[in-house]
Amino acid sequence: MTALKLLAALAAAVLVHLALMQIWPDLARMVDVFLVLVVLQGLGGNSLASLFVGLLVGLTHDSLTGNAFGLFGFADTIVGYGAARLAQRLVIQRPTGVLAVVGFASVLQEAVVVAVMVMLLPDPELPTPLAVALRAGLSGTIGMVVYVAGSRWRRGSETRRRNRMSRLRLG
Amino acid sequence: MDERRTGWVLIIVLVIQLVVLAVQGARTGDTWMEAVWLRAVGPAGRLVTAIPRGASGARESLRLRSSLQEENLRLRREVEQLRLRLLQLSDLENDMRRLGAAVEYTTPPLGRIRAVDVVYIDHASWLRSLLIYTGDLHARVDQPVLSASGLVGRVVTVAGSYAKVQLITDRAASVGSMILRNRRQGVVRGGGKGGVGLALDYVPRQADVREGDRLLTAGIDGVYPRGIPVGTVLKVGRGGQLFYEISVAPAVDFGALDQVYLLDHTPIPREVREAVPGDRP
Is the interface score ipTM higher than 0.85? Predict the structure, then answer.
């Protein structure tokens, strides 16, 4: 069930990314929906699963970019593992906490990508600090919105389930 | 699994990925892993492009219904003119062939072109690659890709009915080119000004290069045939002691591509292209 949910979330991320590319390419350049997915999964606290989810999501992202294949796979593996380890030590419940974690993860991802490019590619293309900050802010905001929406949906479905159960008991 | 073991798994996974990345180097070839991922992601891209395309197509057909007759007349006139022009060009072609035969000169065949749909353009990394849907007739690695206005790039990965195209604006791309006015050759590279333009390298300071000069493929790189428009010279800088620093505007507007053409051109075999003079066969 968890694997199915994850695949559905990945498919949704791919569709959102592709749709953004069609509708608003500048925004698509600034927002990393794949990173948001990796971090939100990592916040569950399972480091082994997060590591492999990061790898899977990163490779999917790689197949949609012109970068060397495996660059985002490598970075997202580290980000997924890092997010899970952080979630094991800190209780992150406030939406602003999620914003901060996703924002930090975005900076970490950029740093890893740049480091690997500098190591392996002859003439790497480096992002500007402003682009990194914008990307971190926007991805963090998107992460926070998705987190809040997910929490509300979970609470709503839980309330509906409880109401159904109480009506069954009364009947 | 305890955290210590997970840490080891992380290290192993990262090392494997680094090795794969290092072996792959600067994305130049067809990796089977990328092909597997492309097969999975390609249909999603096709679906997303089909929805707005269908909607805009329907809107367009409604809008154009009133002006169809006028459009039809104009197109008929244009077809007549083009037929006349084709006749003139056929005459010229025949003349050229006759003259060529007289001096035993054979031109390489240009090949046929086939229209294919663009599924996805990579805007995220400054227009460096695009994904195309080729249908049942699959593309081939190194196959040139064109648009109506000029050279787009070459196929780098093939995954069934999908293929990834490296645009000429990619920093790792290079095209053997020549200036149309004086046939002076150089190498056009991606990632010029702002990452989306092109640069013309290896043109010596003695050469005559002017702003506005048109560049065509020179047919010297073994991938692209001669004569495809590449771009226009934007600015000629002093550069180093030996060569000019030349900025080039691409002939193609990469942001507005929804269909491209695959050129069925026979490239020079890799072993011939990479053979070193003096090597034994």
Answer: no
